[in-house]
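Thread: "does anyone have the structure for this chain?"

Original post by V.I.:
We have the sequence but no experimental structure in hand. Need at least a predicted one for the grant figures.
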Amino acid sequence: MRIDEDEEEKEEEQAEQQEIKFNWNSFSKLLCRVSLSEAKMYAKISYLGNLAYSIPQIKYSKPRHYYLAVDRPQFKMVTLVDLLRVARKHSSLPIVLYCSSRDELDAVCSVVSNLPNISLDSVYSDLAEAERMLKLDKFRQATMKLNHKPAAANAEVNHETGNEEHELFMIVVTDACLPHVSSGESSICAHVLINHELPTKKETYLRRMTTCLAADGIVINMVAGAGEVMTLKNIDESTGVVIEKMPIDMFEML
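Reply from O.Q.:
Generated one for you, C-alpha cells below.
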C-alpha cells in the first residue's frame, strides 16, 4: 500500500512540473470584456503592484521647501528658463509647475515650448475630464519610468557645449485641475514642484504638495515683491513647513 501511495505522489509531482502551454484559442477563452471604469481600476492596481517592487529601496524623507526671490514679477520667466537649463544638466526630472491663471499658464508654455529637451504638457480647466485624466496619467507613467531608469539613459550630448543634457518631463497646471485624491486618483509624484505663482491659502499650498509631489521631492517657490514675500511667510508660519532660501548652486539640492 505504501509503495502505491509513493508512486501516486511521484506521478502528481511530475504532472505539476510539466510546463503548461496555452495556444491562442484556449487562452482567449479566459478573457472577457470589461467596462472603462473597471479598466481604470485594474490600471491603478497594476500601478500599485509595480510600486511594490520598489518598497525595499524606499527611504523615508521629507519634501524640501525653498524660495527664490526676484526683483519684479516679469523676472520670474527669465529665472525659470535659467532653472530649467541647469536642471537639464543634472538628470531627467519630472517637474510640475503651478500657475494661478490660464493667462499665466499660456505665457509659461509659450516660452518653455521653445526650449530643447523638454517634454511639455499643460492641464487647464477648459479640458474635458477624460482628457485631463489622460494627460495626468501620461505624466504619471513617465514619472514611473524615470524612477526605474538610470539617469544616463536619457542623456544627450549638446554639440555646442559638449556637455550632457537630459530630457525633462514637465507639466504646467492650474489649481482647478489637480488630481482628485479623494476620488481615488493617485499622486503624480513629481520630483520638483515649482510654484510660479504662490497660492493665497495654506490649504491650496498643502494640496499641491499632496497631489503632485513625491515623498522626497523639492518645492521651489518663486516670489516677487513684498506682497508675495508676506504670503510666503504666512504659509511658513501657519503650516509649520520650513522654507529656506534656495542655494546658489542648484545641484546642492537636486
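V.I.: this helps a lot. The chain has one domain: 62-252.
O.Q.: and Residues 129-147 form the longest helix (19 residues).
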